[in-house]
Amino acid sequence: MPDRAPQPVDRQLPTDEARDLLSLVRDIAQREIAPKAAEEEDAGHFPREVFTLLSSSGLLGLPYDAEYGGGEQPYEVYLQVLEELAAARLTVGLGVSVHTLASYALATYGTKQQQVEHLPAMLGGGLLGAYCLSEPSSGSDAASLRTKAVRDGGDWVITGTKAWITHGGVADFYTVMARTGEEGPRGITAFLVPGDAQGVSAAAPEKKMGMKGSPTAQVHFDGVRVPDARRIGDEGQGFSIALSALDSGRLGIAACAIGVAQAALDEAVAYATERRQFGKRIADFQGLRFMLADMATQIEAGRALYLAAARLRDAGRPFAKQAAMAKLHCTDTAMRVTTDAVQILGGYGYTADFPAERYMREAKVLQIVEGTNQIQRMVIARHVAGPEGR
C-alpha cells in the first residue's frame, strides 16, 4: 500500500570518502538487496551472490588495513555501513558483521606472515567467514567450551561441535576457539580452519522464526588437522582474543539493530501517512503521532550510543562498557520499535504482505546473539559496581 520512499538518514560522517562510501552502500542496498529481501527470506535463500558483490566492492573488510585489502575505515564509518545494509536486509547486515568478527582474530593477533598469507582473500577475495565460540552446552558460559585441539607433531587435531554458527556450512573459513590446556578461560586457543578441511561438516540449518535466509547451524570438527601455522596468537590466549572480538562485534549487532528499527519506522511512517480512517490520515491522530515520535527518539538515541562507543574504539580508548550498553539499548530498541510498527499497521502489520512482521521476528534474535542482553547487563554492572562477590 505505502509507496512513499524513506528519506536517507542524516549522518555525520568524518570525510568526503566516507560520504561517498555510504552513497555506494545505499545504491547497492536499494538495487541489489532490498527488492529481493522479502521473497528470499521467505524462501530461506542465502544470498551468497550479494556477499560476492560486497567483497568485490571492498565492503567486507572495511575496518581493516588497506595493506591487506581492507578499507581502513574507522568503526564510526563501518558501523553506519552495517546499519544501511541491515535496514535493507538483516541477513546481509548481520552477515557482514559476522564476517568482520571472524576476521578479527587474524587481523588483530595474527603474525605478519599469517596476515600476508590469508587476509587479502578474507577481506577482498570473495571468502566468507564464520566465528565458532558457542557450543551446545556452553553458550553464555563460553569459558566452559569442550571442543579440543590436541598437538600431533607440527599439527593440531580439532574435535568437537560448535553451535549457533552463522554461516555454518557455507563459510570458507572458521575462526575456532578450542581447548588446548587446563579447564577454564586460560586453556583456550584460537585457530583458523578452512571450510573445506577434511573432517569439517555442518548439520542441517536451524529452523528459525526469523532470518531464514541466514544459515545458522552446528558445525562438527571430526579430527580436523590444521598446521600450527594456523594457530592465532599464543597457546591459551584464545579466550581473551574471543572476548576482545566480541566487544567490537557487539557494536556491529547494535548498528544492525538500529538499521532494522529504522526500516520499521520508515514503513510505519509510510503507512500512517497514506492510510486514512474517519476522514483523515491515521498519522494525524495524536496517539499514533506520539508512537512515531517515541520510535524516532529511541532510534536516534541508539545511533548516538553506538557511535559514541565506536569513537572511543577509534581513539584507542577502552570501550567494552559502552559496547555492552550499545548492544543492550539498540537491540531492545529494535524490539520495541518493530513491535510498535506492527501495531501501527494493524491487521496489515501481522501479514507477510508488509515487512513489519519480518522486522519484528528478526529483531528478537538481536537481543540474544553475541551475548544475551542479560549478559550485557552483567558486563555493564561489573564496570559500574565492580565484580560480583567482593
From TrEMBL:
Family statement: Belongs to the acyl-CoA dehydrogenase family.
Source species of the chain: Streptomyces viridochromogenes Tue57
One Gene Ontology MF term: acyl-CoA dehydrogenase activity
Domain Acyl-CoA dehydrogenase/oxidase C-terminal: 236-384
Superkingdom of origin organism: Bacteria
Cofactor requirements of the protein: FAD
InterPro entries assigned: Acyl-CoA_DH_CS, Acyl-CoA_Oxase/DH_mid-dom, Acyl-CoA_Oxase/DH_mid-dom_sf, AcylCo_DH-like_C, AcylCo_DH/oxidase_C, AcylCoA_DH/ox_N, AcylCoA_DH/ox_N_sf, AcylCoA_DH/oxidase_NM_dom_sf
Occurrences of domain Acyl-CoA dehydrogenase/oxidase N-terminal (ranges): 15-125
PANTHER family per the UniProt record, alphabetical: ACYL-COA DEHYDROGENASE, ISOVALERYL-COA DEHYDROGENASE, MITOCHONDRIAL-RELATED
Keywords: FAD, Flavoprotein, Oxidoreductase
Protein name as annotated: Putative acyl-CoA dehydrogenase
Acyl-CoA oxidase/dehydrogenase middle domain residues: 130-224
Family matches, as Pfam families: Acyl-CoA_dh_1, Acyl-CoA_dh_M, Acyl-CoA_dh_N
